[in-house]
Design brief:
Helix content is 42%, strand content 11%. The protein has 324 residues and is α+β, with helices and mostly antiparallel strands. It folds into two domains: 178 residues, FdhE-like fold; 113 residues, FdhE-like domain (FdhE-like fold), CATH 3.90.1670.10. Strands 1, 2, 3, 4, 5, 6, 7 and 8 form an eight-stranded mixed β-sheet that branches. The protein is globular and about 55 Å long. The protein binds zinc ion (2 copies). The site of one zinc ion has 8 residues, from loops.
């Protein structure tokens, strides 16, 4: 395993045309870019514009916190052990997660409170989060990371996810790309073991024209070839769905779909979809923000019979009794 990593790293350094396998989060801008994009997308036409503005404030708070955050890095031995077992380099789902993320949560709540007038519902939620003990908070974190829907508290989850994101994005931004193992599991982040939120076809420099799936936890982007399911690796039964004007002619509809900056990529093999954005059509496209802000596309694709490969970490479904 270690041998394979060394070889891959050497090949990448010798061949300037090699596709960059990873794009690590940019510490100085990662959450600020999300906040800016969320505000851009929170226009009057968006059915959840108020929520997007609240989440933009949360992303801003994440960026301020990240600037001074310094989570303990795993030891060299732990990193090498995970490499040998083709395990994520700093797995998030572990009993050795430590208390750093809970400190991050309380600092984010301070920021949200300081930002100004809280609705009664939000004030109540903040109070509820503050009253939870360490065990209850860690149980929520585990349920979120393991996608155990029935145990997730949908109202509290975005804030808990935001705190976890600060810790793991901090780690990912400081990890040496060459240390990151190759995993056998498709669609899993090799840095933290979480699942991607959406993908982006990038423009610029070494990334030009390549598609990356962005991790919903640590924001690391992993290269994934186009027209391939990011959930099960299938290349069969892939289809694309885009919002089109309902009163457009069929011809106009297909033209609109061809030029759409955001689509949903569905897979008939596993029945799921993830969204994909094209930076050449929307330069500020940000996978995490654009995924959250495009609820109407989710409705369209779910009407077509597909389900999300994973929930957005800031928008958990409210389960009905039938779902549980
Ligand atoms: Zn990750
Ligand atoms: Zn699939």
């Amino acid at each position: 395993m270690v041998q394979r990593i060394v070889e891959a790293a050497r090949i990448e350094s010798l061949d300037p045309s090699a596709i960059p396998r990873l794009r690590m989060p940019e510490r100085a801008t990662v959450f600020a870019a999300r906040a800016a994009r969320l505000l851009q997308l929170a226009d009057a036409n968006n059915p959840i514009s108020g929520y997007l503005r609240l989440m933009a404030a949360l992303a801003d708070a994440q960026q301020r916190l990240l600037a001074s955050f310094n989570a303990p890095m795993p030891s060299r031995e732990t990193i090498e052990l995970n490499q040998r077992h083709s395990m994520p380099i700093v797995p998030a789902l572990t009993d050795t997660r430590g208390p750093a993320w809970r400190d991050a949560l309380f600092m984010l709540l301070d920021s949200i409170e300081a930002a100004g007038a809280l609705t009664p519902a939000l004030a109540q939620l903040v109070a509820r989060l503050r009253a939870m003990d360490s065990a209850a908070l860690d149980a929520q974190a585990d349920a979120i990371l393991a996608l155990r829907f029935a145990e997730v508290d949908p109202a509290a989850a975005p804030f808990i996810a935001a705190a976890l994101q600060v810790v793991w994005t901090d780690l990912a931004s400081r990890i040496d790309m060459k240390d990151v193992p190759y995993l056998d599991a498709p669609g899993v982040c090799p840095v933290c073991g979480s699942v991607p939120v959406a993908s982006i076809v990038r423009v610029g420099g070494a990334y030009e024209g390549y598609r990356y799936a962005q991790c919903g936890l640590c924001a690391t982007e992993l290269h994934v070839v186009r027209a391939k399911c990011t959930n099960c690796d299938s290349t069969k039964g892939i289809a694309y769905h885009a919002m089109g004007s309902t009163d457009a002619s069929d011809e106009d509809k297909s033209e609109l779909a061809r030029r759409a900056p955001l689509k949903a990529e569905s897979c008939d093999e596993c029945g799921t979809y993830r969204k994909i954005g094209y930076q050449e059509r929307a330069y500020d496209f940000e996978p995490y923000a654009d995924d959250l802000a495009s609820l109407t596309l989710d409705l369209l694709v779910s009407d077509a019979g597909y389900r999300r490969a994973a929930p957005h970490p800031w928008l958990w479904p409210e389960l009905t009794e039938d779902d549980q």
